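In this supplementary section we document a worked example of the pipeline. Step one takes a protein sequence of length 234 as its only input; no multiple sequence alignment statistics are reported here. Step two produces a three-dimensional model, which step three serialises into structure tokens for compact storage. The input and output of this example are shown verbatim.
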Amino acid sequence: MPTMASVPVNGSLMDIYLDGPDRRTQGPAIVLMYHRDGIDAFTKRVASKLAAADYLVAVPDVSHRVARDIPMADRKKFFKDSEVVLDIRAACDYLRGRPDVDKDRLVIMGHCMGGRMVLLGAGALPGFKGAVVYYGGGVHLSWGSEAKTPFDMLRDIRVPVIGFFGNKDKNPSPEQVDRIDAELTRHGVVHDFHRYDDAGHGFQNRTPGTPGEQMAAKDAWTKTFAFLEAVLRC
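The serialised model returned by step three reads:
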């Protein structure tokens, strides 16, 4: 049953959308970073699918510092990477304080700009067991004109990464994905990238989508659950 929680982050109250099983023992949890449209029907479907597999899912609303009258799709331009890191940390702290969460079994996952935030969070914060990136673009750019980009922080990732990308995508383009792949390899970060020739950006958010997008979405979910099982195994 989906619920909401709120946590303070440097004087601002951040909402966290929650979905997960009703369990009496500690189990794994996933910090899910949303795409540009925020906690919308797609993000809720993703959370529900993960919850059905016995994962507690927390989606931090990283737009909590932005005026509510600004449309969600326009809030991205107000984000700062350092503030996003604080929000991810706050979501992790919240999860680790729950009696139904094993504090040592957290994964970070996200789609589109959420995939970018996954690489940012995995590079900036310790304690994750893995990172799942769906077509995260703009990794080579900073939000808020900050000194480091998520690309600069790839070297600091200390957990396995799995990524899913469409070869028809332009952000990230196949060439940009190649750069991320090469940088992770250069720094010895364990990662496994999967690319789909007949899919573009947002292939998991297509209903029903082209046959190529459907295949990509199905295959990516299968590989995601296998990855989660592997990195979160007790």
